[in-house]
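Workshop exercise sheet. Pairs work together: one partner reads the sequence aloud, the other fills in the structure field after running the prediction. Swap roles for the next sheet.
Pair: D.N. / O.F.
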Amino acid sequence: MTQGDEHHVLLSADTNGDGKPDVWMTDTTGDGTADLYQFDTTGDGTIDVTVVEGAEEPGTDRLVIEGDGGHPQEV
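Structure field:
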């Protein structure tokens, strides 16, 4: 059972073949379903895209995407 802010990685993958994981699917709520997705799109060891799924209230899903995908942000 998950309590508090514990995170359980359900799946991690090495998508670019460098021997290090660069995609993580995490269950932050303990319900057995992934709701946090993190990606290292550049292979530099730093997470640069984060996607969060969850429900504030039953039936209300939210999707939050943070990060620049490894590309400089245009000003």
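Discussion prompt: The first strand starts at residue 8 and ends at 13. What would you look at next?
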